[in-house]
Amino acid sequence: LIFLRHHIDNGLKYEYLTVKNPLELWQNLNDRFEHLKAVVLPKAMNDWAQLRFQDSKTVSEYNSTLFKIVSQLKMCGEVITEDMLLEKTYRTFHASNVLLQQQYRLHRFKKYRELIGSLLIGEQNNELLLQNHDSRPTGSAPLPEVNATSLDFRGRERGCGRGRGNGRNQNFLGPRHNNSMKWKNMDTKQRQKWRNPGQSSNAGQAQNRKGNCNRCGMEGHWYRACRTAKHWVGLYQASLNEKGKQI
């Protein structure tokens, strides 16, 4: 009784809730659905007659539709053999695939699953063939590789004669001009750019010696790389300008 009530529809559970005998429940269900075969069989026979392999977009779609109809026919007592499944598939090929249909017949498949497996493999190979053809049409040149393109560009960049390391222009300006391009002292102009204009020179040099930022006073970065919020920076600058007061 528990097994029957577990598998029947929810609407039927409430209808037969008062039935306590499992045999009585089984007979009631049998009397109610005994005419189901007479209703399903004509539609299943019509679907079987109208089923064609050429109407399906994929092999998997045809296979699922076929077994749905076959299960209904078997439930109604009809016998569906392997030869019937094979002939149904062979005879419903598209007219443009006559040679393909003959080739599959020459394989002499004994079971339907062997035929459907070969059709699935052929469909997958055809999809790969079409993808390769669409990615590169017939007669077109192959695309250059990324590494080869980057190496070619680097080679042309080195040979153009406009880089800083070119030997021909290395001493063009003379030793006096080349020496002027080097950094002479890190504590002169470059540190003046990083220094906060609101602070004195001595305070900035003292903070630079400590390694603190001139903007927020924290360690680990310079003034230009500072990302501290503006209100924290304002509090820090106020503390420098008003050292006598407690901030």
From TrEMBL:
<feature type="compositionally biased region" description="Polar residues">
    <location>
        <begin position="197"/>
        <end position="211"/>
    </location>
</feature>
<dbReference type="GO" id="GO:0008270">
    <property type="term" value="F:zinc ion binding"/>
</dbReference>
<feature type="compositionally biased region" description="Polar residues">
    <location>
        <begin position="169"/>
        <end position="182"/>
    </location>
</feature>
<feature type="region of interest" description="Disordered">
    <location>
        <begin position="155"/>
        <end position="211"/>
    </location>
</feature>
<dbReference type="InterPro" id="IPR036875">
    <property type="entry name" value="Znf_CCHC_sf"/>
</dbReference>
<dbReference type="GO" id="GO:0003676">
    <property type="term" value="F:nucleic acid binding"/>
</dbReference>
<protein>
    <submittedName>
        <fullName>UBN2 domain-containing protein</fullName>
    </submittedName>
</protein>
